[in-house]
Specification:
The chain has 351 residues and is α+β, with helices and mostly antiparallel strands. The chain has helices at residues 11-23, 27-49, 52-68, 79-96, 104-107, 156-163, 167-178, 183-190, 194-211, 217-242, 245-250, 270-274, and strands at 252-259, 266-268, 287-294, 297-306, 311-323, 326-333. Helices cover 45% and strands 14% of the residues. The relative contact order is 0.11.
């Protein structure tokens, strides 16, 4: 059913009109009703699940539950709180059905210099990168009560730390510290007490603070300003495209880490990295890079020349974590199926 006419320009009145129409079976009204929340709900599902694919499945499940349960939303209730309650519980159900996702740094100890990275493991093991800019995640805080910025709470270190929390602690921390819901609202969402929410939040805070770096990538990028970020990207691209190993190593911190999911091996320190798969061969391997953003961080899409086909094909999405003006971590996701979600071309012409 569709076709109802809405005339009010007042957003509160219009939302009420859309809600009433959706309750009467108007699917177009429902779509317009939830559209302002879609990007935030998708990011919420990703924070809970650590996977772009799982987040999309959970979002669709959430919207279906919302459509079917519209009559359960009180007319004076908060639509935002109700939608996040549904999405949170859809994610908790998904977590019950599968193992948590990790990055290689959480999978095992670092490999020795020169060690073979071994066979890749299935994609369902790994945290996946997130195209926050392409999906419309906004800068700043979601609510005045939030502790973390929206993009800060999508950074790889934050997502990986979240996946190490028990599921309900994870939900409490995201709902309270990222989205700014009150303890009472969170308790209602999780069908528990305010005291239980506060207790879970304290445990989650301690665990997260132990795992996060002292400075977020958002703060680091702001300190470098656009000019400094652009210079770093140009140095990275020039070093790798020319195969200049010394220039590559000069970009790294002494204790830099390199990982390449879905391979389990990862490397710590310049010496180990210099003997890893990160380094180009001699002569240069015919690489090209396109700058992008993932998880609120600098990222570069890597393409390799296929001479016989006369084209560059995607091989990895490198997500960089900076410390000052140097690179502290490179996570090279060899998940080329994600390139279209970042708006990246599936191939580059030669030249």
């Amino acid at each position: 059913m569709s076709g109802m006419v809405f005339t009010s320009a007042d957003p509160v009145v219009r939302e009420r009109e859309l809600l009433e129409a959706a309750r009467c079976g108007d699917e177009d009204a429902f779509g317009e009703l939830v559209e302002p929340y879609r990007a935030g709900l998708h990011a919420h599902c990703y924070r809970m699940l650590g996977s772009l694919h799982d987040a999309e499945d959970a979002l669709q499940d959430s919207l279906l539950r919302a459509w079917r349960g519209l009559r359960g939303l009180e007319r004076r209730g908060s639509l935002r709180a109700w939608l996040y309650r549904i999405a949170t519980n859809a994610c908790l159900d998904a977590i019950d059905r599968r193992p948590r996702r990790v990055l290689p740094i959480d999978f095992g100890p670092p490999a020795n210099a020169g060690d073979d990275p071994g066979e890749p493991l299935g994609g369902s093991v790994w945290v996946e990168p997130y195209p926050d800019a392409a999906l419309g995640v906004e800068d700043g805080h979601a609510a005045p009560e939030s502790r973390y910025e929206q993009r800060e709470s999508l950074e790889l270190a934050f997502i990986a730390a979240l996946q190490n929390l028990p599921a309900r602690q994870r939900a409490v921390l995201i709902l309270r510290e990222v989205l700014g819901f009150s303890a009472r609202e969170v308790a209602e969402s999780l069908q528990t007490s305010v005291a239980s929410v506060n207790s879970a939040l304290q445990r989650a805070r301690r665990a997260i603070d132990e795992r996060l770096p002292a400075r977020s990538q958002q703060a680091t990028l702001r300190s470098l300003e656009d000019e400094g970020v652009q210079e770093l990207v140009e140095r990275f691209v020039d070093a790798f495209e020319s195969g200049d190993v010394d220039a590559i190593l000069a970009l790294l911190t002494e204790d830099a880490a390199f990982a390449m999911p879905p391979h389990t091996s990862w490397y710590r320190g310049r010496e180990a990295i210099s003997d890893s798969w990160l380094m180009p061969g001699d002569p240069p391997a015919g690489l090209r890079y396109l700058p992008t953003r993932a998880n609120g961080q600098l990222a570069l899409a890597t393409y390799r020349l296929e001479p016989e086909e006369r084209r560059y094909v995607p091989i990895a999405l490198d997500v960089l974590a900076l410390r000052g003006a140097r690179i502290a971590e490179i996570t090279a996701f060899r998940m080329v199926e994600l390139f279209p979600r970042f708006g990246l071309p599936e191939e580059l012409p030669p030249g």
